[in-house]
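Thread: quick sanity check before group meeting

JM: Hey all, I'm pulling together slides for Thursday and realized we never actually wrote out the predicted structure for the chain we discussed last week. Dropping the sequence here so it's in one place. If anyone has concerns about the input, flag it before I start.
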Amino acid sequence: MKLADVLCKECIAVNAEFNNKAEVLREVARLARKSPVLKSVSEQEILAGLEARESLGSTGIGGGVAIPHCRLKSVQEFVVGVILVPSGVDFDALDAAKVRLIVFIIAPEVESNKHVRLLSIISQSLLAPNALDKILAEQTPNGVYGSLLSEKEEEINGGEQVARSLIHVFIQNEDVFRDILQILTGIESSSLVIVGAENAGVYLSKMPLFASFWSDEPSDFSRIIIAVVDKKLTNETLRRIESISGDLNKSTGIMVTIQEVSYAAGSLST
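JM (edit): ok, ran it. Output follows.
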């Protein structure tokens, strides 16, 4: 499945205006039903799903972008739509900025892995330099459709590949951890797990011999992201990590190791 398979031209609106977030969600529910996939689903059910998701935290990801979404039992296929709001609307976004581009997702309840990957792919593409301005410059649904697909046409769930790489990312910075986890989630055909860990300093500082090395409590944040990716995507994965960390050879608080996998079978839930 690719973004082109789920992006619905009938669910794209340009030059919209809203007074508040509640109006946006009502319009998303109305617009989503223009997709043939959702003809048997009521606006009320879609709106309730969107509102329930927003109650967990705003889907305004910052940079003028929001990705409202929900999972519904009655939905069998993904539907993605777009609304352009040139003048912006308050959406309780993470950076408090007005939202000008809204990409919404109505998803099947049982397809959580694909849903997570789709969210990651869309969010990363929309936060790319000039991506927002490029899409907002479009004046027709067809133009928005083509512009959004040109930003990111990547497999949401790729086929099985024989050659795999095992990547360990050791991270001691919580902000970096969150950013890298998000971009790794968007790597097609990847499987991820997170391992909690503690820095050696947490233990060494409690040993009399080494106690003088720490005047304050050492940081205890440490996580290991373990990812299995297609071998052909190893360099791209490393590039994405360094887009956050900078040159790994000059970075501190992060380390990456990569091994070739001789055998891999099965899959993991996100």
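AS: nice. The chain has a mean pLDDT of 88. The chain has nine helices and ten strands.
JM: adding both to the slides.
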